[in-house]
């Protein structure tokens, strides 16, 4: 940070304005304190201002854990910057803690010398006990030594700000998140306009609540301006993003929009069948609003109905999609296998979360790659696409749908909790530049004797997609093994082997119709770091840093998990070492090792949290030294 | 479903696929297949607009034998597959073929939800009170105490009454027939085909290998008249070879068997009303089970209510009318946007 000017406030207070390249803020409080909301608002105004933004919402699985306890702490971290960023940041610059539990749970992530803004009114003996403090963190001099601490009586000041609006005490106290937001807006020189507009529209029917939240927002800002506490305030200039129109997008929004767009590009209507599950439910929520795009959404009775109704819709000719997370995908396995043997197009989205079993529902993990590859009975190969970032999920969803209909196969689209809930600026695409998706349905029989042969394949081994309602093409598909070409039931041993191999060859052949794998960095060298999924940002940043230090390191981020891009094997041979950082116990590295006989080394973290850049940096250094 | 176009007159043979039918000799399934082939040509629906969807079990081979579109899916899931198909294609007539294990055990959940949504599906439940394909384990409709391969000392489970379950789930159409009662089965299938909504037909189907004679009480001439009441809308519940017995409600509102003549006239009997909005009568009829009581056969309930597949598509049309056809560019640009130059 560099001091650029000293400004005089209107009240005669002198203070310094500093310019920063990138700032990491974390809002944290009770899960009922509205921390996700203020985090989202800060993200919006920063994105609109032109900063690059990356976010990490982190909330408990319990909707309302006991107030004031560590279990109930909800946090929203964001990094906003004047240059390209790929992660929400390793260390927090400014921590807003609404109660002692929030401080206790998050202080370790605050960098030395960082700023703490805390709601002093909540720092009571009773709350210390709930948070498990045995000391008074504000009185103990050593505890917060080394940080810039601002104790602000937010509850009282919020009540004062809204006192004339006739709210109940409970309603008044619910405005204190906006007080905190107003203060941080002042501290980082943000324009609150978008938030003010949002408040007015959100509380359009209860204007007294709109007025109260607006008053709290202003009171927070005024507090920063008028007290002597904050001697420095900061500005982060806009980032130099590629020219275009931008919006903020989360991974779940991007998947929903990508699916609708793919359906549009194919001239099809989307049918989405789902069962609520964290963290995939927002895809259902998003799509269920889009009925006027011809989207038919169904919240079915269970995960099995979600996949099997998807199979039914696909047979009927729809663009059929279902989404879930690990436990739901496990339940769908048999239905997905049915889609594979029927060779019908559909997309199954897996927004991965911590497992096994119910695991860590609100935390991120990448531990379902092998389930996607092998988690069905029998030999049951499927293409797998993995999104890299929230914005990339839009393109990944379109690509998954393209492959599904062009190759008549169920396709897995892998996202994760980090991508799903994380947000970033997204350049709005020009629809006319997106490639159309080819879909065709036969109208006349394809057999020599005028009969329809549902499993007669083209040169890519793809079978035709004949729709019910087409005269002369009546046919039956099913879960039993079928004769090649005719599709009739067959228990013939030779035919079974032939069909198993044919289905596998069809999926493997998709490698000829997807882009080659690219690398960032030298085409040959000491180390190739291979990643996939939502870890893109931190690994990209770590590799860039290593490259700046002159290290011979390249980065390959894989989006096509099955089949791998056709040059993957050759590419791996160009480096002496291969490092695969993953949020699992080594699933991609297992696939790379078994597929390409390469000595891929894993770097594995399974804590429900994304990689820090520094962790990957260290792993790169260690690997290079080994 | 009528297209309004003159169609070539189809025959039962036109609905037979080229696949060899492979049920055990004298299985009740043959008769159900034959009656279905008889009924379909009468519906004036083009063959290509009919789809049979089944789960797993002996009965679920059914779609392979029909020259229509068909899906042989996985155990218990046919109602969900068919629901997805109907949402995509409300124009099709979709039949679900299922069994007692398929629909009431592994697929119980989908069965219930299909019915409560009133998806416009025709469901034929082949109830043979046994698992045939897996060679003879007891099913959720097997009578308590039944000795099977998996219950050598007798089953302990109380059986489900499929039609009661369906009525409890809000069924708009429930009916029952017997595999070998050819005319009656044809009549019931035809009624189901014309019903608008989930039409459930339970067919008592003899598994002559693992549960032979389970439904003799309802199939054998001479005894079936004594054990079954053949329902007719608006008519009193009369049964017996000599049609000399009837069902009357006692003071507690419970059905009791009475002999006609001895002070009891037809007017004293319970009259059938398929169209009663209140499901109490249908539920009462469904719960009359042999051997405690004579069993009603035919259409127990046939009421109109909106179908789910049409409602899903209607909502799409309504929202489109309200907001106009969606524009992707507007969608992309929704919320706050900013320009970088």
What would your notes on this structure say?
Chain A is of the alpha/beta class and 626 residues long. In chain A, 36% of the residues lie in helices and 22% in strands. Chain A folds into three domains: 2-235, Pyruvate-ferredoxin Oxidoreductase, domain 3 (3-Layer(aba) Sandwich), CATH 3.40.920; 247-433, Rossmann fold, CATH 3.40.50; 525-625, 3-Layer(aba) Sandwich (Rossmann fold), CATH 3.40.50. In chain A, the strands form five sheets. A seven-stranded mixed sheet of chain A has the order 12-11-13-14-16-15-21, with helices on both faces. Chain A has a six-stranded mixed sheet with strand order 4-5-3-6-7-8, sandwiched between helices. In chain A, strands 20-19-22-23 form a four-stranded parallel sheet, with helices on both faces. Chain B has two domains: 12-235 and 272-316, Rossmann fold, CATH 3.40.50.970; 237-271, no CATH class. The longest helix of chain B has 16 residues, at 308-323. Chain B starts with 27 loop residues before the first helix and ends with a strand. The chains are: A alpha/beta (626), B alpha/beta (341). Chains A and B meet through helix 1, strand 10, helix 9, helix 11 and helix 12 of A and strand 1, strand 2, helix 2, helix 4 and helix 10 of B. Strand 10 (244-250) of chain A pairs antiparallel with strand 12 (337-340) of chain B, so a sheet runs across the interface.
SSE arrangement:
The complex is a heterodimer of chains A (626) and B (341).
Chain A: E1 2-8, E2 14-19, E3 22-30, H1 35-49, E4 52-58, E5 73-81, E6 92-97, H2 100-106, E7 110-119, H3 125-131, E8 148-152, H4 154-162, H5 169-173, H6 176-187, H7 193-202, H8 207-226, E9 232-235, E10 244-250, H9 251-266, E11 270-274, H10 281-288, E12 296-299, H11 303-316, E13 319-324, H12 326-342, E14 346-352, H13 369-374, E15 384-386, H14 392-407, E16 410-416, H15 417-421, E17 423-427, E18 476-478, H16 493-509, E19 525-532, H17 536-548, E20 553-558, E21 560-562, H18 568-572, E22 575-582, H19 587-596, E23 600-604, H20 613-625
Parallel strand pairs in A: 2-9, 3-6, 6-7, 7-8, 11-12, 11-13, 13-14, 14-16, 15-16, 19-20, 19-22, 22-23
Antiparallel strand pairs in A: 1-2, 3-5, 4-5, 10-17, 15-21
Helix pairs in contact in A: 1-6, 2-3, 4-8, 6-8, 7-8, 9-10, 9-14, 11-12, 17-20
Chain B: H1 28-39, E1 50-54, E2 69-72, H2 78-88, E3 93-99, H3 100-106, H4 108-117, E4 121-127, H5 162-168, E5 173-178, H6 182-194, E6 199-204, H7 216-219, H8 224-227, E7 228-230, E8 238-239, E9 245-249, E10 255-259, H9 280-286, E11 295-302, H10 308-323, H11 328-332, E12 337-340
Parallel strand pairs in B: 1-2, 1-3, 3-4, 4-6, 5-6, 7-11
Antiparallel strand pairs in B: 5-11, 8-9, 9-10
